[in-house]
């Protein structure tokens, strides 16, 4: 087995295991800033450590950008899911999933435990009730949710509820687009939202600021972080524009 050089003292995104023989005297070595000493290892010290098979700290730009992209992808997936829900409006099979259904004095079920919703055409929702004894309770829960939806029991099937959706209007579409735009702004620039693009970028920039290393490499990583940020801003905006067009 080849000896390895283990990266220490770095944010998780920059920790890697690299075979010692892969290094040369030009390898970029860096470490967390020491607030008291403010020093970093020289290339000479790094080469000596490599020759002695000692543990050194090595900058891994690709690992940093890969983890950045992973966090942005996770943010985009969350954004896309919420965007789809807003775009669908009430024609959404998950619209009732957060409702609580009181079965009896000792048991309250979540909606998915007792029923399932499906979109029927463009103007109807069908709710299939698993136990016919729960039908009235589910109807009551939907009415009490103030969704302006009126479930009707199919006269031929007591376990099927049919719900006519309101016709889409210009005013309704404008409200949907406004809500989608607010969602976009949240995920783009709300620093208080942990998964927003700006919050993720800020976290990575802070890690770089607290790390010493080659100025050229640090600058390149900073530029890559900025370029990646802009790429994902465009990706979020494109998803919003496509959702907006689908409503017009």
From TrEMBL:
Residues 79-247 form the Ribosome recycling factor domain. GO terms for cellular component: mitochondrion. Gene3D superfamilies: 3.30.1360.40, Ribosome-recycling factor (1.10.132.20). InterPro entries: Ribosome_recyc_fac (IPR002661), Ribosome_recyc_fac_dom (IPR023584), RRF_sf (IPR036191). It comes from the Eukaryota. SUPFAM superfamilies: Ribosome recycling factor, RRF. The keyword Signal does not apply. Keywords: Protein biosynthesis. GO terms for molecular function: ribosomal large subunit binding. Signal peptide: none annotated. GO terms for biological process: translation. It holds the Pfam family RRF. Necessary for protein synthesis in mitochondria. Functions as a ribosome recycling factor in mitochondria. Belongs to the RRF family. This is Ribosome-recycling factor, mitochondrial. The lineage of its organism: Eukaryota, Fungi, Dikarya, Ascomycota, Saccharomycotina.
